[in-house]
Amino acid sequence: MTEQIEIQPDRLHEEMLRLHREQQMDFLEDIIGMDWGDDGLGIVYLLESSATGERVALKTRTVNRNSPELPSVCDIWQAANFKEREVYDYFGIQFINHPDMRRLFLREDWTGYPLRKDDDPTDARNPLRMDNEMPVDTTTELRLNPDGTLSDEEKAIFDAEEYVINIGPQHPATHGVLRFRVSLEGEIIRKIDVNCGYIHRGIEKMCESLTYPQTLALSDRLDYLGAHQNRHALCLCIEQAMGLEVPQRVQYIRTIMDELQRIDSHLLFYSCLCMDLGALTAFFYGFRDREKIIDIFEETCGGRLIMNYNTIGGVQADIHPNFVRRVKEFIPYLRGIIHEYHDVFTNNIIARQRLKGVGILNRDTAISYGATGGTGRASGWSCDVRRRMPYGVYEKAGFREILYTEGDCLARYMVRMDEIMESLRIIELLIDNIPEGEWQVKAPKVVKLPVGAWYSAVEGSRGEMGVYIESRGDKYPYRLHFRSTGLPLVSVIDDICRNSKIADLIAIGGTLDYVVPDIDR
Amino acid sequence: MEIKKPKIASIPYDDFPDNDTLEQMARDMRSNGVNVVTGVLDDLINWGRSNSLWPLTFATSCCGIEFMALGAARYDMARFGFEVTRASPRQADLLLVSGTITNKMAPVLRRLYDQMADPKYVVAVGGCTISGGPFKKSYHVVNGINSIVPVDVYVPGCPPRPEAFFFGLMQLQRKIKVEKFFGGANKKEKKPEND
Ligand code: SF4
Fold first, then answer.
1. Which CATH code of 3.40.50.620, 3.30.460.80, 3.30.1330.60, 3.30.460.10 fits the domain covering A1-120+139-154?
2. Nearest CA to ligand 1 atom 5
3. In angstroms, what is the span from residue B125 Cα to ligand 1's centroid?
4. pTM
């Protein structure tokens, strides 16, 4: 269980600053909005130090439900910018000194705050609006004046003279329905305003009225290229809360499945990036080999994309009798053919010029935004959850973390290509040693978690996939929050793209490798 | 003139479960009789149209990945004439709605549909587009895109297998093959209100 230290709002900013300076808590893992009913609205902060690995959880709250106001921490961690907007969108908490207090997912004309316990977002206040959204060029900041008073200040996102073009939500290179508003000066990008929410499915609110086994089904659909991993994270969190020990066999199966999924996702990353940059042949290569992994999945899990495989205390079914053989055939196959990928794309002069030195993200910025996964590792930040918070049986496979230091598009690309090889190595070491035993422990039919709060994470295909559960002892979670892997990745895009060319936006977006339904949840 | 039976190479006519509906559709369209010359021309046009459908690259979530798998080598939708995916709705004539449509996305979807040139067709792919699917109870998901755009074919599944995509697309081809180009209305659609 995560112990949370409560801090009064008036001391919060000062305390956070102290933690950041003195204890090097430079990684703001997540900000989770909470509605504690009569105890008010509040926030849970999860912090980690990238230097010492130490972790703390803090919380703060306000009992004023009509106009809740809490201090912002986005001047300490840039990650807080989007996450506080998410909290504002869900709970209506205004953040003092936040430079851009707009909704993040829902439309500006949405009424109410859907994740508040006393708000029913499905009622008549919010019908399906078929009128087009109006673009807004201004935002507000709730500013704390030196004399202690608060005032609303209007700020411009784009000036009237700026040349702003709109990209998305329907645009093949945004990898889903993401919308950018880009301010240009000639070909040079001056600013990007990211608009999310076109695939906001309200999963977190839905989970509050589902039993724990039911919530599993939705986790696959968050980041569908990390279906096994998402579900693994949720199962880990529930098992941790129940105190359920899963057998070694399950641990092996889950680890192998996670790694196969990672290869699957990275192959798709390769295909899409290449297609976006105009290399269509490479797209076919990636998909050709991806189908082989899908065949393996399909035999055991029955699904090609949405696998529904992990369960609380085990997996849905034992591995198929052919599983081991097919995986063992696949490993030498991919190793033998991966040179084609490098021949056709990596060593191509055009590809190199479009990737090398483009979109540089340095280590400190990556940490400040919390951009984990391949993106963080390409900037030299050792952020792999498999190392930081070991789970599964990675230790048995002598897991090695792939790190690059350049932080450019090429490094982000190479991290993924190298991770394919590393995953193959892990699978190879594990596949022959899957111990005999049960593939599902006897879990109670009705899963009830004790009172408390838990956080678990796994290394998803594109970063730290975390699950936070707060329980009040019911069959249903009181609050279930997913740490999106993609949200930090899109929040960093404005920073990386400034002063790059507009054409580089495609390469940068492609190598950041976000999946939009996971951002919007 | 007898009701013509739209043929799809490699799948026998009787294997399709929707023959009754299709025959009824054909009967309705031909209730005023068919001119022999225009009838033959219609067949020619429909043959061309049904075998060169250009889909819009439009995908919002999970089902879209299966749509990509269709484009790749194993399933290869080029075999049936769907390979020219277009990124602009102006050049596409098939809107394959793959993936959840949320409230915020709904006006955008409608706009994309309106931007497409006639004749245009819509295929609803996956549980989400048909009814809201797993997210039916969500506050921000449209429960069935037929309330936004007219749908020609529904392909159930979560996500549907690529084979199911093809079956749905072939059903659409059959529908196109009984359409009329010269005179008569193919779809009874409400006129959009001008605003
Ligand atoms: S139908 Fe299923 S697979 Fe398709 S978009 Fe909806 S949740 Fe995803």
1. 3.30.460.80
2. B99
3. 8
4. 0.88
